[in-house]
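Hi V.,

You were right to ask for the full record rather than a summary. Here it is.
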Amino acid sequence: MFTLVLHTHLPWLAHHGRWPVGEEWLYQSWATAYLPLTRVLRELAEEGRGHLLTLGMTPVVTAQLDDPYCLAGMQQWLSNWQLRALEATTVRDGGTPDTFSSPEALRAFGFHEHQQAGAALAEFADHWQHGGSPVLRQLIGAGTIELLGGPLSHPFQPLLNPRLREFALREGLADAGARFAHTPGGIWAPECAYAPGMETGYAAAGVTHFMVDGPSLHGDTALGRPVGESDVVAFGRDLQVSYRVWSPKSGYPGHPAYRDFHTYDHLTGLKPARVTGRTIPSESKAPYEPERAAAAIDAHVADFVNTVRRRLISESERTGRPAHVVAAFDTELFGHWWHEGPEWLGRVLRALPAAGVRVGTLSDAISGGFVGSPVELPPSSWGSGKDWQVWSGEQVADFVTLNAEVVDTALTTVDKALAQDSAYPARDRIADQILREALLTVSSDWPFMVSKDTAAEYARYRAHLHAHATREIAGALASGRRDQAQKLAEGWNRADGLFGALDARRLPR
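Predicted structure:
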């Protein structure tokens, strides 16, 4: 049995976003990954195909896909994309002959891109005007996908105060239940991070299975494994199969025929080049040719199907029983980083059953008996070194200190507020906002972006912004200035605009 697991997650904006992360990354991924991916899944469902893949949705992303501010911004972004493509069709001079920047190549690409932008606008108008939740709810309800949930704000759980860890997980699952009329039984733990004992909290929250990286299971990923003395099953990513598509060093998206993600036409902001070659400088890259890319997709579909079949056979022979292969990726690989990814995915999900491979979800694997003996998992993640160094190493030690201080401030203040405010038996919006800002402070994105030196300045700004908000509101409330705390909470909430259902009264005591 084969399971494809995708995890939808981006560094996010919460109305504070600016290039190069924030809004532009969200809209790029929405246009080039989320729209075409859900379209492909809907088309496969219309063919009578179900249980196609397991999709992990980070609550922060689902909140943005439903947010009126983001929906309006996305409409504008798509329209701007179409205008930029139209501008490319008018290029008459400049550029370099025989490269993507020649006038002839840019005009041809502009016509192609104008058609793509128009199709995206139509897709958005037909299916996304009321947000992402209806789109996903349809796929979940039809049995096309299995949904994985996760904690609010994507915190690195092993380093998080246990009370806030439990609260974040329960609120994240509740958020999914409210948006999709479906509470997921499985989760994609942020960064696949695990610390011994976390399975106990998972079981208490109703979680039945979660993802880890393959090395956490010492590469023995042919079956799901109950963790410790619990019934919670850990599934490991098969690196041999997953790395065939994408690894730190190679993978299908690097093929010369595919569109180059990094090369821009600076006049229009479009990406009209193909990879051409790994050593070819951007200015010398050849024009993108859709027909050439389509041939490469066919070859890579065949290669992947053969890879999965061989792996299933070899793992079945090794274990003496039917095996399960899990390939897992960031959703954004399919379309955002790899333009041809959604088309490849659709063809693969048709080709695997035709080749005799059973395709199913993680829940299908459990019900089908693809579960082995219990295992003790080590502290782990899917980051560099497969440990916690990306989120707790020397380079980000200040984040560890900051997070501990902010969380302690938030919990102490909220505990006192809820214990003393007998006059406020209903929801306390001030306490809600303090916890919301603390959760936004401890997002795993911020140390990741610093460790990997990807918009590190922005990451530090965002972490300290939310830390300041937590301290400011908590300070006013702790000093008895409730009216001022109320004003501050309302002001910060207008900026964040996330997780309106978060309720501090559900914080574990």
